Fold this protein.
Amino acid sequence: MNKQDPIKDELKRISVSLKSSVYQALDNLVVARGFENRSQAVTEMIHKSVMEHNQEQGDKVMAGTITLFYDETKMGVKQQLSDIQRQNVSEVISSQHILLEDNHTMEVIVVQGPANKLKKISDQFVTCKGVKSGNLVLTSILLPPIQHH
């Protein structure tokens, strides 16, 4: 599949036949989520499905975030999370800590690299003692180069 310039990306039409119950569910979704029209809703669903497929493929370079929620009073959790970031400095771009109630922290980590590597990094974070939950979200739209060689 050729990579196209998004500015020059032309629209293509498709036709889809749906059972009336699915058609009504789509219309309800459009209203509930605030889409401008069905096309916008279907485009978002396809985009999400393609991202999930690309994530499963493994070696495709993607960008995204790892969002963690953790109890900062757990011994060594902050150090362990910092160590994982240092060990993966090529993929970890940035992180933001947000202090929550009751000694909890939300940390959002911006990452870019092969999807399978990002999944492994996310798993390392999530399995740290003190981390309550975590989520990896990826996209095929990449960050611009930080440094020019």
The first strand starts at residue 61 and ends at 71. Residues 38-57 form the longest helix (20 residues).
